[in-house]
Design brief:
Blueprint: H1 2-22, H2 25-36, H3 39-47, H4 53-68, H5 74-106, H6 108-114, H7 116-127, H8 129-132, H9 135-163, H10 169-173, H11 175-190, H12 202-207, H13 210-219, H14 227-233, H15 237-248, H16 254-267, H17 275-280, H18 285-300, H19 303-316, H20 324-349, H21 351-375, H22 382-399, H23 404-412, H24 418-447, H25 451-469, H26 478-486, H27 493-498, H28 508-521
Helix pairs in contact: 2-11, 2-13, 3-9, 3-11, 5-6, 5-9, 5-24, 6-9, 7-9, 7-13, 9-23, 9-24, 11-20, 14-15, 18-23, 18-24, 18-25, 19-20, 19-22, 20-21, 20-22, 21-22, 21-25, 23-24
């Protein structure tokens, strides 16, 4: 009896130590630094152009008049401004397309560090455009900044998913969404008239981009590379062990090494899968469809429309034009708090309830907002209901749909498939972003306040699909997630494990033997790469 009690006590103590070790200093620092120089800048660049829009248009007009001797017509000015805003998404698409070979060659961490070259170059171009009298510099800076965002929104979730223990993988993955929200909020704060929201100071809004980039470039090189990348792609066991030790905060990482090696044996080899190969792989067909649906809904769910209507709704509520920028801060604050809340509860509630529940709540509040906006001139208190709906939609989005799609992409696919999967996810993300920017003005002009019913329909379709297809991935290994999808993919689990590389059939025993031998020696062999 005593032995049993002692054994139980030791088990509890070990579990307690394991839980404490999950959040090591290096793990937290890598996550914060990675997100601050990556997803933070994405969020910041989404909102930073709003406050100085009038001053930037005036700069465009003055530059045009100085060059050609006459003022630019309204249509051309609108076109130039639309290009300035939307070309960010084109740059993002380019970044998402080129990220696969970059993360394969340089690794996850080094990709994030090198990506700061784009951010610094973009910041210098945009901040010096007024001084140089060239609006082309601002537009070029926006597209380069988009490339930075496209790379970081794939490389960062990949890095976070590979350095985190599965017990906290969801919480750590939410750092991407949390820092996007913090970036949006920071852009709103710095754009206030008392700070940089003035005609002479707006270039500083773009120059501030250099600060997070330099911080990341200085700190991140001293932190380890992804241990999975080191072990499975570089076959360097000693470096992988050291990386695991620093990230997990413990000396004995043999269990983690064996867990990754077990995944490698299932893979048969570590050759990177191309996008075409991944799309042809039957064993991950529904995983790919689910990623496409979640990423598509992430951009098409109507949050951009909410930002479009915010100032108008606040004005209709009787708020002074001068006060609206300060009231708008409430949207950024709610967005950040909701994202933090999601990060705190995701490992308790799981991905599935937060994602489906978030889209479901957006459907409800979009419906109420449509009624409220349609009737707000007839009932004096309805504009306040509209404000509540706006804040509720933002909170519903950030609780689940705002961050979990990035987490799922990292969880659904094995090491060799992950870069191609993130390339697909990033492409869908940025194409959807561009489509919203291009089509929303026409949708809004044609349907007016009823445009929100379109977004409610998209959210409903997304929630319905996820309800029937998405399995819970909380605390599950890749093997368990594959097992959940196996029946829907119409393959046995054994076929699913063998079918990762169509057209390639090699002796599994020989591959495992060669792989283990090369990893133990820290060498790379041609037969395995």
């Amino acid at each position: 009896m005593e032995n049993k009690q002692q054994s139980n006590g030791m088990t509890k103590e070990n579990n307690s130590v394991k839980k404490k070790a999950n959040w090591s200093g290096s793990l937290i620092l890598a996550s914060l630094t990675g997100a601050f120089g990556s997803s933070f800048l994405y969020g910041y660049n989404l909102s930073v152009v709003n406050a100085p829009a009038g001053y930037i248009k005036k700069f465009y007009n003055e530059t045009w008049e100085r060059r050609y001797g006459f003022s630019v017509d309204e249509g051309t000015l609108t076109l130039l401004w639309s290009i300035t805003v939307s070309i960010f998404a084109i740059g993002g698409l380019v970044g998402a397309i080129i990220v696969t070979p970059i993360v394969k060659f340089f690794g996850r961490k080094c990709t994030l560090v090198l990506n700061n070259v784009f951010a610094v170059a973009a910041a210098l171009l945009m901040s010096l455009s007024l001084l140089a009298g060239s609006f082309e510099m601002l537009i070029l800076g926006r597209i380069i900044m988009g490339v930075d965002a496209g790379i970081s929104l794939s490389a960062l979730p990949m890095y976070l998913s590979e350095i985190s223990p599965k017990e906290i993988r969801g919480s750590l993955g939410q750092f991407t969404a949390i820092f996007i929200c913090i970036g949006v909020f920071t852009g709103q704060v710095l754009g206030l008239p008392e700070i940089f929201g003035q005609e002479s100071r707006w270039p500083f809004l773009f120059g501030a981009i250099i600060v997070p980039s330099l911080i990341q470039a200085v700190i991140l090189p001293f932190l380890p590379e992804s241990p999975r990348y080191l072990l499975l792609e570089k076959h360097n066991r000693s470096k992988a062990e050291k990386a695991f030790q620093r990230f997990l905060g413990k000396d004995d990482v043999s269990h983690e090494i064996e867990e990754v090696l077990a995944e490698s044996r299932v893979q048969r080899n570590t050759k990177m899968v191309s996008v075409v190969q991944l799309l042809r792989t039957r064993a991950v067909r529904w995983q790919i469809v689910t990623v496409v649906v979640t990423m598509g809904c992430y951009q098409l769910c109507g949050l951009n429309a909410i930002w479009y209507y915010t100032n108008n709704i606040f004005s209709e509520s009787g708020i002074d034009r001068e006060t609206i920028p300060y009231v708008t801060l409430s949207t950024g604050g709610v967005e950040t708090l909701a994202a933090v809340f999601s990060g705190l509860v995701i490992e308790r509630l799981g991905r599935r309830p937060l994602l489906i529940g978030g889209f479901g709540l957006m459907v409800v509040f979009f419906g109420v907002l449509t009624v409220s906006l349609t009737l707000q001139n007839t009932v004096h208190w309805l504009p306040y209901l509209s404000i509540f709906c706006i804040l509720a939609i933002i909170a519903s989005f950030c609780i689940g749909p705002g961050g979990i799609p990035f987490v799922l992409t990292g969880e659904f696919f094995q090491q060799s498939q992950r870069p191609a999967a993130f390339m697909i996810a990033g492409t869908v993300n940025w194409l959807s972003n561009f489509a919203v920017g291009l089509l929303f003005p026409f949708i809004q002009a044609g349907l007016q306040t009823y445009c929100f019913l379109v977004f409610a329909g998209i959210c409903f379709a997304g929630a319905t699909y996820l309800f029937f297809v998405l399995p819970e991935t909380k605390n599950k290994t890749l093997h368990e997630i594959n097992q959940a999808f196996a029946k829907r993919n119409k393959v046995t689990l054994e076929m699913q494990e063998m079918n990762h590389y169509p057209g390639e059939r090699k002796s599994s025993e020989g591959q495992e033997s060669n792989f283990t031998s090369s990893v133990d020696k820290g060498e790379t062999k041609k037969g395995i790469v």
